[in-house]
Every structure is written in C-alpha cells, then in structure tokens.
Amino acid sequence: MLDENQKKVEYTPDAKTQNTGTFVLNKEDHTIGNLVRMQLLRDTTVRFAGYIMPHPLINKLDLKIQTKDYTTTPKASLQYALDDLINETEHINEKLGEAINDWKVKQSNR
C-alpha cells in the first residue's frame, strides 16, 4: 500500500545528460526492477537501463534510462517496455491455460 499522498511512479529528467531520466518506483523491489530493466535492454533505442535499491529496508527502486537519440524519450521507452511485458504475460497465460485444458482432456480420456 502506498503512503498517503505518495505516487507509485515519479520521474526526474537528468540535468547533466540528455535523453536520460530516473524513475522512482515506490513500493517495488528487485522483481520488477530486473524484469523491466531486461525488457528495456531489448529495445534498440535504449542505450542504458539500470536500477538500484537505495536501501534494503526501503521498498523503492530508482530506474535510470538513457535513450540513444531524441526520437524516443525515457518515458516512451518505459511505456513500450511495460506494454511488451503485458503482452508477453498475456501470451504466457493463454498458453498455460491451453496446456492445462489439454492435460484435463487427456486425464478424462484415461
């Protein structure tokens, strides 16, 4: 649960490097951090994606994204990565459901 007046995601553009920004994901841990980082690294427009957990007892992570050029922003790259993860998860869920149904049919035919 988020604290009162706490946002799930906060974005801060990097003042020193163009096409770079840091997202703070509140109440998240390594599970989401690593999953999103790996998806971002599959994107050819992303130059760098990494995350840190500032402290083990604080449930938040800082996700830094740098894109290669001006055509794609860090916000857009994160949105593409999340959309891809949603599509992959739906595909896996669909295939798992099909496999379970096939197994049930085989079990009932015994």
Could you describe the 3D structure shown?
The chain is an alpha+beta fold and 110 residues long. It has one domain (9-108): 2-Layer Sandwich (Gyrase A, domain 2), CATH 3.30.1360.10. The protein is built from 2 helices and 4 strands; from the N terminus they run ββαββα. Strands 1-2-4-3 form a 4-stranded antiparallel beta sheet, with helices on one face. The chain is elongated, with a radius of gyration of 18 Å. The N and C termini lie far apart (47 Å). The model has no long low-confidence stretch (mean pLDDT 95).
Question: Topology of this structure?
Answer:
Blueprint lengths: L8 E5 L6 E7 L3 H13 L3 E7 L7 E8 L6 H35 L2
Antiparallel strand pairs: 1-2, 2-4, 3-4
List keywords for this structure.
single chain; 110 residues; alpha+beta; Gyrase A, domain 2; 2 helices
The end-to-end span amounts to 47 Å
Summed up, the domain count is 1
Architecture in CATH?
A: 2-Layer Sandwich
The helix-and-strand class reads alpha+beta
| Rg of Cα set | 18 Å
CATH class: Alpha Beta
How would you state the average pLDDT, rounded? 95
Order of helices and strands: EEHEEH
What topology, given as strand order, has the largest sheet? 1-2-4-3
Looking at CATH, which topology would you report? Gyrase A, domain 2
Relative strand content: 15-25%
Q: For the record, what is the CATH homologous superfamily label?
A: RNA polymerase, RBP11-like subunit
| Low-pLDDT stretches | none
How many helical stretches? Answer: 2
Shape: elongated
Q: Can you count the beta strands? A: 4
